[in-house]
């Protein structure tokens, strides 16, 4: 995971990261689930889907909550989407975060309120890199387990 750029707009700080490989929708779900399970847990505040051009977004948080915060149990998330957004209070980083995953790319955008700019002052420009690297690894591990299970079922 590489940090490509950081920019501040109005009341937000946006950090764009490049994943190790281009990814698809399954990775998006697994990566978001890794963040939910290991960090946001009960502080998940937003799940939304939309098109890459950000033309329209569909909020899914209530359906995700009914599904026990398991994205793959949410009917709206079963159909492939262009963008997946999750947001909540990060226990690990001590601030609100929003992650945006863009399908068929290698781009992940992290957004935090500019009130928390001290995180970058203390940790440097790569303050969130380890956080996102661990999420990426967990997503690839989940994909490997799923592949193994699918091969076992078909074999």
Give me some keywords for this one.
single chain; 155 residues; seven-stranded antiparallel β-sheet; 7 strands; 35% helix; 35% strand
Structure description:
By secondary structure, the protein is of the alpha+beta class. It is built from 4 helices and 7 strands. It has helices at about 25-40, 60-65, 120-125, 130-155, and strands spanning about 1-10, 10-25, 45-50, 55-60, 85-90, 95-100, 105-115. The chain has a 7-stranded antiparallel sheet with strand order 1-2-7-6-5-3-4. Helix 1 (about 25-40) packs across helix 4 (about 130-155). The radius of gyration is 15 Å and the shape is globular. The mean pLDDT is about 90.
Indicate the topology:
Blueprint (H helix, E strand, L loop, with lengths): L1 E8 L2 E12 L1 H16 L3 E7 L6 E3 L1 H6 L16 E8 L4 E8 L2 E9 L4 H6 L5 H26 L1
Antiparallel strand pairs: 1-2, 2-7, 3-4, 3-5, 5-6, 6-7
Helix pairs in contact: 1-4
What would you report as the Rg, rounded to the nearest angstrom? 15 Å
Major beta sheet, strand line-up: 1-2-7-6-5-3-4
Give a short account of the largest sheet: 7 strands, antiparallel
User: What's the average pLDDT?
Assistant: 88
Give a short synopsis of this structure.
The protein is of the alpha+beta class and 155 residues long. Helix content is 35%, strand content 35%.
